[in-house]
């Protein structure tokens, strides 16, 4: 396994949506629509999709907006080209090239909601902490942070063989990610009002929380 898979390139980037459908046996479209339907989105929200990838998730989010927009942040060349094509026909999408490893190119208190899906686990732990602090900075007071990633309640030693195989093919940092308890980490930064949704037999969790005062 690679230690991390942050930047997706080449064949995997070109066929990313198809590959996600295949490895989830066709479940991914239903899963991500359920996730987006669970997000506390208002029609005029400014949303940051951090690690937007192919833009499939952002496109679904944009469907919930009327006057709002989705800033689609990514670093991958192929993904940014795909996002640019989608943005031509969907004016609610705005692609932005930026790395999550560095301070975000946005002013504080800018976004109503930040969405991140299967990205945070791919960073080293110190980088994750920096990313979360940046999210807190650019969120408006009372804004929402919505994180989709592996459930930190997973015990791989007691997990099913399917779960173990899934983590075997994931990057090394995915297994390290679930050794941390993320609610206390987020709470220490000032996030509050935690709510959860579970998917894939509770192996995946949607965390919804708010920026406090």
Key terms:
Rossmann fold; globular; 213 residues; 38% helix; alpha/beta; 9 helices; 7 strands; seven-stranded mixed beta sheet
Helix and strand arrangement:
Blueprint: H1 10-14, H2 16-23, H3 28-38, E1 46-50, H4 56-62, E2 69-74, H5 77-89, E3 93-97, E4 111-117, H6 125-138, E5 139-150, H7 161-168, H8 172-177, H9 182-189, E6 191-199, E7 204-211
Parallel strand pairs: 1-2, 1-4, 2-3, 4-5
Antiparallel strand pairs: 5-7, 6-7
Strand content: 15-25%
Q: What is the residue-mean pLDDT, rounded to a whole number?
A: 91
What is the CATH architecture assignment? Answer: 3-Layer(aba) Sandwich
Strand order of the largest sheet: 3-2-1-4-5-7-6
Give an overview in words.
The chain contains nine helices and seven strands; from the N terminus they run αααβαβαββαβαααββ. The protein has helices at residues 10-14, 16-23, 28-38, 56-62, 77-89, 125-138, 161-168, 172-177, 182-189, and strands at 46-50, 69-74, 93-97, 111-117, 139-150, 191-199, 204-211. A seven-stranded mixed β-sheet has the order 3-2-1-4-5-7-6, with helices on both faces. It has one domain (10-211): Rossmann fold, CATH 3.40.50.150.
């Amino acid at each position: 396994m690679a230690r991390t898979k942050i930047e997706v390139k080449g064949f995997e980037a070109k066929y990313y949506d198809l590959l996600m459908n295949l490895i989830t046996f066709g479940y991914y479209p239903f899963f991500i629509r359920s996730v987006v339907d669970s997000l506390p989105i208002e029609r005029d929200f400014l949303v940051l999709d951090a690690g937007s990838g192919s833009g499939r998730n952002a496109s679904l989010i944009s469907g919930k907006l009327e006057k709002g927009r989705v800033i689609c942040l990514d670093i991958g060349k192929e993904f940014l080209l795909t996002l640019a094509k989608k943005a031509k026909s969907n004016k609610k999408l705005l692609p932005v090239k930026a790395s999550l490893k560095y301070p975000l190119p946005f002013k504080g208190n800018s976004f109503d909601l930040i969405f991140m899906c299967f990205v945070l686990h791919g960073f080293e732990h110190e980088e994750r902490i920096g990313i979360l602090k940046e999210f807190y900075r650019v969120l408006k007071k009372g804004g929402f942070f919505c994180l989709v990633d592996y459930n930190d309640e997973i015990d791989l030693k007691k997990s099913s063989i399917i779960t173990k195989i899934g983590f075997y093919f994931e990057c090394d940092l995915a297994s390290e990610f679930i050794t941390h308890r993320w609610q206390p980490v987020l709470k220490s930064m000032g996030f509050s009002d935690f709510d959860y949704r579970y998917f894939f037999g509770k192996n995946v969790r949607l965390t919804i929380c708010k920026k406090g005062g």
